[in-house]
Design goal:
Helix content of chain A: 40-55%
Helix content of chain B: over 70%
Oligomer: heterodimer
Number of helices of chain A: 8
CATH architecture of the largest domain in chain B: Orthogonal Bundle
CATH topology of the largest domain in chain A: Phosphorylase Kinase, domain 1
Distance between the termini of chain B: 73 Å
Number of strands of chain A: 7
Number of domains of chain B: 2
Strand content of chain A: 15-25%
Shape of chain B: elongated
CATH superfamily of the largest domain in chain B: Winged helix-like DNA-binding domain superfamily/Winged helix DNA-binding domain
CATH superfamily of the largest domain in chain A: MucB/RseB, C-terminal domain
Order of helices and strands of chain B: HHHHHHHHHHHH
């Protein structure tokens, strides 16, 4: 009953609004305070019920079409030129392609980002599949020194395996997966009741890319590259904490 | 370096920046005004407004920018057509009446089905529906919600806490009523 001071902290913690240090401090408090940990469980139950209830109302296709149809006509003066569009548009596309081919740069990132999207879709599908009973882990261990050697001989690369238990993301296991037509390592971490799948495979061009967050089918996906590896973390965990997790992993 | 950032940072066309948030826009409008047809009209109007103001969009969080317009359009609609629905904003009688019975929520909440949840959320005052939708369905941070609502973060936090308590209490009440009905069968 003495935890009123912590009420704000608890809410901020629950909504992932605390920085790492303060959230670790609060986790310590949670271990010793049944009232706060009980309240946290209640909040989590409410959140789970809301998520399970599928309350999100997506825009009907008819509305999408209506908006796309009315916007340029009503609000865009330059749409007059659309009557002459076919020829001009084709010329423009041709010119764009020529310039792009000539410069050899512009189209490549676009193709790459499309490819990344496909990979992200595959990754979300794999994440969902992994959460079905018995699919999550091939090797169940919280010890990075057990998980890492397990991959030996199963992959043509050695994925970096680190435990982040002290930072609130314990490693719980690993498995082999197949993404983008190749075998990849999947590490499984946990944040409270959320599972995080991290997919790892070698980066061909050895280029580094900072973490980038995407949302897909309600899951958050963070992808980045460093030290010659591609990483892609996916979870129903909120984007802020997932991002925090990615930062920890790419240190 | 800084000065470069001061330049209009608006990257991409209206279609690229604003249209991707149509689902978010509709979801918010739908939960604020409740009726699908009204929500569609509001989103369409909001998108026209967004188009007109797009020149002033300085880059940054496009979703929050769009949702702010949708929110304002929804509230104008409610003020004009259903002023009574805005009056319930500060009604906390239910909140204070039931909040004493803490401790049993967990068990009760677990069996809250989607129909019940939908109904309970629909019954909340509009400003409470709003914070729940932005936080739980849209997954926005306090800062983003504050931007959408045009209110300080502290107000967002306390509103969210009260909204959650009310939602929980409504679910408990509905569950209890259902239990009584089952007993009578």
């Amino acid at each position: 009953m003495t935890c009123e001071n912590n009420e704000r902290l608890l809410r901020a913690y629950f909504d992932a609004e605390l920085d790492l240090v303060r959230s670790l401090e609060f986790e310590e408090h949670l271990n010793t305070c049944p009232r706060c940990s009980g309240e946290l469980r209640e909040q989590q139950t409410l959140r789970n019920s809301i998520r399970a209830a599928n309350l999100y109302e997506r825009a009907p296709d008819s509305l999408r079409a209506r908006i796309q149809a009315t916007l340029p006509a009503e609000a865009r003066p330059q749409s007059i030129s659309t009557t002459r569009r076919p020829v001009i548009e084709w010329l423009a596309i041709a010119a764009a392609i020529l310039i792009a081919v000539f410069l050899g740069v512009k189209v490549i990132p676009d193709i790459r980002s499309q490819k990344q999207n496909l990979v992200a879709e595959e990754i979300v599908a794999s994440h969902i599949r992994s959460l079905q009973p018995g699919h999550l882990m091939d090797i169940e261990s919280t010890d990075q020194h057990t998980v890492k050697p397990w991959f030996d001989g199963k992959l043509d690369f050695a994925p970096p395996v680190v435990d982040l238990a002290t930072q609130g993301f314990p490693l719980v296991g690993g498995r082999l997966d197949y993404i983008g037509r190749r075998n990849v390592a999947a590490l499984v971490y946990q944040r409270q009741k959320h599972f995080i799948n991290v997919f790892i495979w070698p980066e061909e061009k050895n280029s580094a890319k900072p973490p980038e967050v995407q949302t897909m089918q309600g899951y958050n996906v963070v992808s980045w590259s460093h030290n010659g590896m591609n990483f892609c973390a996916v979870s129903d965990l909120n984007s802020m904490e997932l991002r925090q997790f990615a930062d920890l992993l790419s240190r | 370096m800084r000065d470069e950032n001061r330049e209009p940072r608006q990257t991409g066309s209206f279609e690229q920046v604003v249209l991707p948030h149509l689902d978010a826009a509709y979801n918010l409008a739908r939960w604020l005004v409740r009726k699908p047809q009204d929500a569609e009209d509001i989103v369409q109007e909001a998108y026209l407004r967004a188009f007109k103001f797009f020149g002033g969009y300085q880059g940054g969080d496009a979703r929050a920018w769009v949702l702010k317009i949708v929110r304002n359009t929804s509230y104008s609609f409610l003020e004009k057509n259903r002023p009574a629905s805005l009056a319930e904003e500060f009604d906390e009688t239910i909140h204070t009446a039931v909040s004493e019975q803490s401790g049993v929520e967990g068990a009760i909440l677990q069996s809250a089905d989607s129909e019940m949840l939908r109904e309970a959320l629909d019954e909340l005052p509009v400003n409470f529906r709003e914070v729940i939708v932005l936080r739980e369905l849209e997954g926005m941070s306090y800062k983003e919600i504050a931007e959408v609502m045009g209110k300080p973060i502290g107000t967002v936090m306390s509103g969210l806490a009260r909204a959650r308590t009310q939602l929980k209490n409504r679910l408990m009440r509905m569950r209890a009523e259902e239990g009584q009905r089952d007993l009578r069968k």
